[in-house]
Design goal:
Blueprint (H helix, E strand, L loop, with lengths): L1 H4 L10 H5 L5 H28 L1 E5 L3 E3 L6 E3 L5 E5 L2 H31 L2 H11 L10 E10 L2 E10 L7
Antiparallel strand pairs: 1-4, 2-3, 5-6
Length: 169
């Protein structure tokens, strides 16, 4: 428990003591040196492997244990992250193509749904209502539809101009 609470003696990692631990017998010294070389080689290989992948990472997440409740609490402004270099640039380059593809797939699905569920007369009634041409008890108005392209995708924007002020509620 002292290791996780943050006692002075337990602040170092569990492998740090082995690098500086005195070894007295020659056979133990040989084994220890071989173990040290393996550890250093493994760390260098891990670093080279990460650089080859183009991955950056940081392990700076801290946590503390509350003594009275034994609950673990994460320290603010500490974090772990892993990031592949160039991922954001690649995502920005492909964003336009992805948006176009998704818009096209949605448009195809929507047209299929309309053909199965909406009659021509229903479509006309909805368009008349959107444009303010319905003959119901509505405030007289003039609606215009403007088609603009946002990131290469056509978007319909409606603007309503009232011929007289609508009654306040």
């Amino acid at each position: 428990m002292e290791q996780y609470v943050g006692a002075e003696a337990a602040q170092c990692h569990h492998t740090e003591g082995f690098y500086f631990k005195p070894v007295f017998l020659p056979r133990n010294l040989r084994k220890f040196r071989k173990w040290q070389i393996k550890q250093i080689t493994a760390m260098k290989n891990r670093r080279a492997w990460r650089l080859g992948l183009g991955v950056e990472s940081a392990s700076n997440l801290d946590c503390r244990f509350k003594l009275n409740t034994h609950k673990m609490v994460f320290v603010m402004n500490s974090e772990d992250y892993m990031y592949r270099r160039g991922a954001l640039v690649k995502a920005r380059k492909s964003q336009y193509v992805v948006a176009q593809t998704q818009h096209q797939r949605f448009g195809e699905w929507h047209q299929k749904w309309l053909s199965q569920n909406v009659t021509g007369e229903m479509d006309t009634v909805v368009q008349d209502w959107l444009m303010g041409e319905e003959e119901e008890e509505m405030v007289p108005c003039k609606t215009t539809r403007e088609t603009v392209h946002v990131n290469g995708i056509p978007v319909h924007r409606y603007q309503v101009d009232y011929s007289k002020q609508p009654p306040s509620p």
